[in-house]
Amino acid sequence: MTSDRTRRRLIDQLREMGIVNESVLRIMQSLPRHAFVDEALASRAYENTALPINHGQTISQPYIVALMTQTLLNKPRANILEIGTGCGYQTAVLAPLCEKIVSVERIVKLHRQARDLLYDLAVRNVVFRHGDGFAGFEEFAPFDGILAAAVSEDVPPELIEQLAVGGRIVMPVGRDDHQVLIVIDKTESGLVQKEIEAVRFVPRLAGLG
Ligand code: SAH
User: Going from the N-terminus, what domains does the chain have, and what CATH number goes with each?
Assistant: First the structure.
C-alpha cells in the first residue's frame, strides 16, 4: 500500500513543475494510480514516471497527464474525445472535470480492462470504444476538446472537422525522438496552433483496416 505522504510528494513535484490547476492536483492526489498498473509495479505507481502496461504500451508520466489535462481544460469543456485509453488513468483524471468523454482504444484487451476498471471506480460519464481514435468519432461530434496519448506525424483532418468552434486539441506530433506537444484552438477566424514542449509518446497504431 502507499502512504498519503508518497502521494503528496508526487503532487508537490507536479506543482513545482508548473501544474497550477488545483482541481487536477486534487483528483490526482485521490486517484489510486497503483490500481492502473500490474501489482509488480504498484510500489512505483506514485513516482513521476511512465510505466509499462500490457501489449507494449505505457501509462503516461503523471506530469504529462496533469499537463495535458490542465492545457485541455483552460476553460470548461463538456464533450471530450480521448484517443488512446490505455489503462484509463488519463480518462479517470478527466472524468470528474467534464460532462462526457468518448474514449477510444485500438487494442481491444486494454479497451476492456480500462472500461471494467473505471466501472469499478464508479466513473459513469465515459463511453468506451474499440477502434482507431485518429479517425475521430462522428456519432458523438462535435467535441469541445480532443486529447491524444499516442503520437501522430500530422493532425488528421477528421479531428479538425469534429472539433467545435471554441474547441481545443492537445496532442503530440512528430515521431521517435522529435515529438512536440501541440495545442490547436478552433476560433471563429480559423485555427491557432501553439507548441507546448518536447515529449515522448508511443506511436499511433494503424486503423482496423
Ligand atoms: N492514456 C493512457 C496512455 C496510454 S498510451 C494513460 O492514461 O496513461 C497510448 C495508448 O494509445 C495505447 O494504449 C495505444 O494502444 C493507444 N493507441 C495507439 N494508437 C491508437 C489509435 N489509432 N486509436 C486509439 N488508440 C490508440
Answer: 55-198 (3.40.50.150)
